[in-house]
Write a structure and sequence with these properties.
This protein has one domain (3-302). Helix content is 70%, strand content 0%. The chain is built from 13 helices and no strands. The protein has helices at 3-35, 45-54, 64-82, 102-122, 128-157, 162-168, 177-180, 182-196, 214-217, 220-245, 252-272, 278-285, 288-302. Helix 8 runs antiparallel to helix 10 and helix 8 packs antiparallel against helix 13. The radius of gyration is 19 Å and the shape is globular.
Length: 303
């Protein structure tokens, strides 16, 4: 295929999934509001926020790295998404999955988080190191069970290629990793709670404790970049989990249904439990999910 056509398809794919991710964010805000007994913002509020922040300008400077933080964050979201096949067998929504594998996708997940941490550190806010320590510590903790689940999948399918993994799950619902290696799915889904940072793992911003973070320190187009990435990165993670554990998707409606249900798992837990303290969160991820991840490797390697 002509490289320019491939790039055009990738741009279309990114736009569609970003709109979907932002819509998901608006729906979740509405759900949380109703759980709290409030009416809540409109579903399209994330789009209005991006338009508003893009229209603002700022003359404050904190150094180059502070403003590169959102760029690195967006690069992490784009890199994660562009190497994932969104719809199995689709030309438009295959992205550049043939050029990368699961290890590259995991690197981009980490890259965005690290870039944002470097940007926050450049801001000079006295509480920035606290937010960085919380975020990177929790990320390291939930990456352990997720990495173990990925190792189990690599052993099971004998590949890191995402398209091959999705292809191996076609034909029957019983071919999904959910049924062939349920322990890996449990470990990874618990890790997803930390990735999405809904309660009880919303320890990074913790608005009731620390009145800081990107929504306050960043502004104008820099905040709009972070808000855009929030929609894209959320959708990318959901599509990744759909491909790894739930058989992927062969059309757009199936993709929307599966990713919506995966996301509602995080939302349900977030609406049901209060936030952990940082040490409770680290201890949690390094205990039961890690043990389940180890068990998933033993299960698939020997049974």
């Amino acid at each position: 295929m002509n490289i320019w056509i491939k790039i055009l398809y990738a741009v279309i794919s990114v736009l569609v999934v970003t709109i979907y991710g932002l819509t998901l964010g608006g729906i979740v805000r509405k759900i949380y509001a109703r759980v709290h007994g409030r009416y809540g913002p409109s579903v399209w509020q994330p789009f209005l926020d991006i338009i508003k922040t893009h229209g603002k300008r700022v003359s404050i400077s904190h150094g180059y790295m502070f403003y590169l933080g959102p760029i690195f964050r967006l690069a992490g979201g784009l890199g994660t998404y562009l190497f994932i096949p969104v719809i199995f067998g689709s030309v438009v929504f295959s992205n550049f999955s043939i050029a990368g594998d699961l290890l590259l996708v995991m690197y981009f997940i980490f890259f965005g988080q690290l870039g944002m941490a470097l940007g926050a550190g450049e801001g000079g806010h006295p509480y920035s190191p606290l937010g960085i320590a919380r975020g990177l510590s929790q990320m390291t903790a939930f990456e352990v069970p997720f990495s173990l689940a990925v190792i189990a999948i690599a052993i099971q399918y004998n590949t890191f290629n995402l398209t091959t993994i999705v292809a191996a799950q076609q034909g029957s619902i019983l071919n999904w990793t959910l049924f062939t290696n349920p322990l890996a799915v449990v470990a990874a889904m618990i890790s997803l709670l930390g990735m999405n940072m809904h309660p009880p793992f919303s320890i990074v911003l913790a608005p009731q404790e620390i009145p800081i973070g990107p929504p306050i320190e960043m502004n104008s187009s820099f905040l709009a970049t972070l808000q855009t990435n929030r929609g894209l990165f959320t959708a990318a993670k959901l599509i990744l989990f759909m491909n790894l554990f739930f058989g992927g998707a062969t059309n757009l409606p199936i993709m929307i249904i599966k990713t919506f249900l995966i996301y509602m798992f995080s939302v349900f837990v977030g609406a049901s439990f209060p936030r952990f303290r940082p040490e409770q969160s680290m201890r949690f991820f390094l205990k039961w999910p890690t043990l389940i991840g180890v068990a998933s490797i033993i299960f698939i390697a020997y049974f």
